[in-house]
């Protein structure tokens, strides 16, 4: 079992994944653990009850469900015990030995509880979880989870309850609760913020040791003030690019800086963790995207992050690693994670193997005060969880005006997008933000265009050298929607084709063949290959674009427009896709194969 929180690891932890008692509560009959008199089912955590891997596979509507597990755990004297949940959809209540220890709202973000006070001295512990998740509630962030009983078009089965790992961690009375890493490439510095909870003694310090490969970069000690440490660590700058490049992170060279962090008191180690960071920058300059201060064309693929047997939960850590490897093998240097906040272990593999990630907030689908409050609360938690991952280079709070459907007519909808854009820039000033991806742009650092034209020549002509940007934004309406809102013209931002393709292919004898969905469907693999490759080549050749994002990585249930089948086997040779994505190295060409 791999550590669930890859950027803040301790040796003393224990997974609670595995078999739990389980029952549905459709009538919302139970309020407390003692109300549940029978546990008719068992479930394999962390798989949602809708999934086959859970052992239940019930995809009907359920408003609430309960979990319970008995385990044995004795706390060490002078230590605290923390109970962590990766994600529970949607409203979770947690009891330990019938004592309420946590309440959390939000289906995609983690939460924790100090359960030391609730532990039974005998060592026999019982944890109970109630998850309330109205399947028809359109005011909560739900992403691609269908509000209809059977999935239709681009919507999939729901995810109820626990769907990411559950685990215990032993920590000292005073411990390092949170780290934030902020690379500052222009100054050749790494920013660190450490947050400590518990009794703070005089002269308490945090020791930071950074190393790359076998080379020690820095070792410093900083005084803890009011439970916090905020420092910028200046590294020895080699100056010339040839030496600098040896330490910079990129998809081609994913160089990570290892960190050993110790909380010290009078020479004694109180708490100790391992972490990592990287030196890299992600910015826009005029009409181009820059990685590490250099022009970097983005070759992305849209990734839904679902698996046939496990839904949003990965089958294994190896499956997450394999998805990163497959994206790279197809020639892509990044993914746009679509309508899902991905498991931190995926971000770890993207950090380690080298793949940039666009992080997108799962949408709610009604515009109400409650919906905006819910969305904002969870978006703040998402940024806090993933801020330190070097692979994340863009934040996307809204997609295709979902949840803000009247942007052209209603000021409150526009204000919501602007509020999320500026909030995100406040929480993370270093990364670009796309306020609303696809169309109807206003507050944004990058203009994303969704265009599912199935004619490669027409696609190339629509954005060709004869078309001026002002003409594009004044007259063209891919998808029937204006690209920029009135009063917010193109200000020279980079333009990226953030959705295109969508060519579907299902094997004729596949059970999904009759109901398979795609923007364009072909029943012959040769026709699928010709069109998919031609569309990618057309997008790659448009000089106006700073990048593209092909739809999509893998088939997802009835949405059969993946380059891979749902089981991740390629529809056409990976090398053929990679040739189309990367293109040829040509003198003066905008897109080139990075070395």
TrEMBL record:
Keyword list, A-Z: Hydrolase
Q: Which residues form the Beta-mannosidase-like galactose-binding domain?
A: 64-146
UniProt superkingdom = Bacteria
Q: Which residues cross the membrane?
A: none
What does the record list as GO biological process? carbohydrate metabolic process
Q: Which Pfam families match?
A: Glyco_hydro_2, Glyco_hydro_2_C, Glyco_hydro_2_N2
Q: Where is the Glycoside hydrolase family 2 immunoglobulin-like beta-sandwich domain positioned along the sequence?
A: 229-280
Report the sequence similarity comment from the record. Belongs to the glycosyl hydrolase 2 family.
- Report the protein name in the record: Glycoside hydrolase, family 2
